[in-house]
Amino acid sequence: MWRLKGCPKCNGDIFLEKDIDGWYERCLQCGYNQDLETIVEVKEQPSREKRELATAGAMKTTK
């Protein structure tokens, strides 16, 4: 993943990469390097239809 003109040092292009120690970002122009604390990987979200069906079933009340 790239962040164009995202380097805080030289305004160069930053790329995100992962190695054995975790995620980090590095500038292509000046070599600026910073470890990233966390990156949340996006997983497939349930479709809206499946969520509505699950919600409708959960709202069932008994007397």
From the structure above, extract its key features.
63 residues, 4 strands, 1 helix, alpha+beta, 4-stranded antiparallel beta sheet, N-terminal domain of TfIIb, extended
Structure characterization notes:
The protein has 63 residues and is α+β, with helices and mostly antiparallel strands. The chain has a domain at 1-37: N-terminal domain of TfIIb (Single Sheet). The protein contains 1 helix and 4 strands, in the order E-E-E-E-H. The protein has one helix spanning 48-58, and strands at 2-3, 14-19, 22-27, 33-35. Strands 1-2-3-4 form a 4-stranded antiparallel β-sheet, with no helix packed on it. A hairpin with a 2-residue loop joins strand 2 (14-19) and strand 3. It is extended, with a radius of gyration of 21 Å.
Summarize the structure.
This protein has a 4-stranded antiparallel β-sheet, with no helix packed on it. It contains 1 helix and 4 strands.
Distance between the termini: 55 Å
So how many helices? Answer: 1
Low-confidence stretches: none
Strand content: 25-35%
Largest pleated sheet: 4 strands, antiparallel
Number of strands: 4
Adjacency order of strands in the biggest sheet? 1-2-3-4
Sequence-ordered SSE layout with sheet pairings:
Blueprint (H helix, E strand, L loop, with lengths): L1 E2 L10 E6 L2 E6 L5 E3 L12 H11 L5
